[in-house]
Structures are given as C-alpha cells and as structure tokens.
Amino acid sequence: GSTIGILGGGQLGRMLAMAAAQLGYRSHIYAPEASGPATEVSAEWTKAGYDDADALARFAESVGVVTYEFENVPPAALDRLEALVPIRPGKRSLEISRVREREKTLVRDLGGRTAPFRAVGSLAQLRDAFAEIGAPSILKTSSLGYDGKGQVRLRDGSELEQAWEAVRGALCVLEGFVTFDAEFSVLLCRAESGETAVWDTPENVHTHGILDTSTTPARTLILDQAERAIALAHKIADELDHIGLLTCEFFATADGPVFNEMAPRVHNSGHWTIEGAVTSQFENHIRAVCGLPLGSTTRTGARVEMKNLIGEDANDWPEILRDPAAKLHLYGKHVRPGRKMGHVTRLF
Ligand code: ATP
Ligand code: MG
Ligand code: MG
C-alpha cells in the first residue's frame, strides 16, 4: 500500500513522515501519547497502547509496511504486528539493539572493539563487575536509556550501593570508561537488495550526555579511523539483514575506533543530512523500507554543522532566522529543561 506505519510519535517520526510525504506516501503514526511532533504532520494516528491487540491489528491492516523511530517497542507488540505486516528494520535488529550487552557482544563477535563491559543484575554482581573493570567506569541501564539518562559514573568503590539505587535495580551493564580523542557516528542505510548508502561520518560533541553538535567533515583524526568503523557497520548491517538506517556511535581513540552503541533507526547525528546531503537519512530510510533504490549521500556544502536546541535554547529562534547560513527546525514541543526542542543546520 501507499501508507507507511510508524511506531513512535517523536521528532524522528515527524521527520520520517515529512520525508515520506515528499515521496507521495501517507503516514500512520502509532503512539500512546495523544499528540506529539509526529502526529502533527501525519495523515492518521492511533493513540492506543502497545498492549492493545485490536488497535495493533487495525493499524497493521491500514499500512503496507511498519517502521519505527525508537528501539524500545515491546516485543509482544512486534510479534503481533509481524504476523500481519512487514516490519523494517526486522525484529532481530530491534532485539539486538534494544539491549546494550547484546549489541556489544555482537560487535565483539564480528571483530569490533568495545569498552570492557559486564552485565549486572544485582548489587553483588555490580561489586564483582567493578572489581574486574575498576574505575572510572559507567553503570548504564541495559535498555530504555537515551540522552545519558539511566547512567551513573563511578570514580571509586564507595559509590556502588548508591549507584545501584539510582538505577533502581534495572538490568545494567558496567562499562569501563574509554579515553577518547573525539566521538563520531556511522550513518548507514541498507536496502533489501543489500545495497548500502553511507554518509560522511559526523563528529559528535556531547554535553552532559546529550548530543550538542554534529559536524561534517569530521577532523582528520576521525577520518583516519572512519573507514574501519564503516567496515564494521557494514558487517553489523549484513549480519542483522538490516533494512533501513543503522547508526553506530564510536569513540576515536589512540588505538582506533571503539564501538559505543547502535540504533536501528534514523539518528540525531544524521539530522544535518536534511540540507547537507543530496538525500537525507529520513528519505533513504523511507526508500529502503519501501523497497525503492537508495539516493546519493553526497554532501552539499564544504562544511555542515548541526546544533541541537535543548530546552531554553529554542527561545533564540527569531535570532537564528536572521542568520542566512542557518536552517531552523522546531519540533513543536513544550519547553522543558534538557528536552530536544529543535535543531539548526548551517551550511558553509
Ligand atoms: P543516546 O542519546 O546517544 O542514545 P545514551 O543515553 O544511550 O545516549 P551513551 O551513548 O551510552 O548514552 O552515552 C552518552 C555519552 O556519554 C557518550 O556519547 C559519551 O560522550 C559518554 N560515554 C558513554 N559511555 C562512555 C564510556 N564507556 N567511556 C567514555 N565516555 C562514555
Ligand atoms: Mg543510546
Ligand atoms: Mg549514544
């Protein structure tokens, strides 16, 4: 059919729906919240919960393919949908990338490097893992974390009990702290045929665990390791038989690229591609899930910078509009501290 089902109602879903509309597709959003950035630009939305079997069945019937903008779709909902309609990227991509230790284990099995890590399910296990990995390290919830939420940094063993309380007994990984020179991501789109498209690797700067800026081209120290990281991303995508966008975050270290995490979807570090590349991450994702050929990822500017507008930053929007190099994106959300309100891309 000519309607694409999107699970999730946030800004990623919004930008997917906008790209879909440009190609003549309608979008049907499935999101429990009554409204959101994605529902405002889509033809239809279902605001039922992911446990509502009837709503899921009606949603599946109304669309030709289902994709998603977040990786925490409950497995039972996926199973229900999968029986009725193709889901792209597939279930395996979600199963792996939903859980930190699974994605790190897969990457290691494929010959990639990760921080030292241990799965932790109790305070006793945290003590054991800390004895092995040592300080500094980071305790992260295995699932549901984003923008650095659900993470506790550990400098010494006296903080273990407090850290375990902070994550409220959720399943976690303890990760050794990686000394890095810079951070970057690989944005790869894979079609059903196995054809892939890769954009320039943006250099990403995070502030308080939240992405602040993504810049292309990245500095030489990143470009020198990008090829190895891209080769690993290809291996991951092939192994998962992934269809659509796959984003892999890396640390650039003195010993080469270290894999941090991945997302089976479009990603904040790829927002620059809307104006900064011939085909955006959103358009190529839609093309891939609809079985269309992928578009060119060639950069359209000598230098492209994306800056997130977090919380009150968004109040500066009239000023941004006066900058001839700036393209402003606002997601239509109410301001809250630490919330991603929009972004601005500058082409030079
Ligand atoms: P996202 O919004 O990207 O999904 P997240 O909550 O999943 O974020 P991570 O990507 O794991 O969090 O971590 C956020 C940031 O914290 C990283 O980009 C990096 O700057 C820092 N960080 C995370 N893990 C490590 C590590 N093992 N060593 C050093 N820095 C780290
Ligand atoms: Mg993450
Ligand atoms: Mg991250």
Concise overview:
This protein has about 350 residues and is α+β, with helices and mostly antiparallel strands.
CATH class value of the largest domain: Alpha Beta
Based on secondary structure, the structural category is alpha+beta
Q: SSE string, helix = H, strand = E?
A: EHEEHEHHHEHEEHEEEEEHEEHHEHEE
CATH superfamily of the largest domain: ATP-grasp fold, B domain
Beta strand %:
25-35%
The ligands found in this model are:
adenosine-5'-triphosphate, magnesium ion
Q: Any low-confidence stretches, pLDDT <50, length ≥5?
A: none
Largest sheet at a glance? Answer: 9 strands, antiparallel
Please tell me the overall pLDDT: 96
How would you describe this protein?
With 348 residues, this protein is of the alpha+beta class. The protein contains eleven helices and 17 strands. The strands form three sheets. Strands 9, 10, 11, 12, 13, 14, 15, 16 and 17 form a nine-stranded antiparallel beta sheet that branches. A four-stranded parallel beta sheet has the order 3-2-1-4, with helices on both faces. The chain has a four-stranded antiparallel beta sheet with strand order 5-8-6-7, sandwiched between helices. Adenosine-5'-triphosphate binds next to β6 and β14.
Helix and strand topology:
Blueprint: E1 3-7, H1 11-22, E2 26-30, E3 44-46, H2 53-62, E4 65-68, H3 75-82, H4 91-97, H5 100-109, E5 117-120, H6 123-133, E6 137-141, E7 151-154, H7 160-166, E8 172-176, E9 182-190, E10 196-198, E11 203-207, E12 210-216, H8 220-240, E13 244-253, E14 256-263, H9 273-276, H10 281-289, E15 304-310, H11 317-321, E16 326-330, E17 340-347
Parallel strand pairs: 1-2, 1-4, 2-3
Antiparallel strand pairs: 5-8, 6-7, 6-8, 9-10, 9-11, 9-13, 11-12, 12-15, 13-14, 15-17, 16-17
Helix pairs in contact: 1-10
The chain binds adenosine-5'-triphosphate and magnesium ion (2 copies).
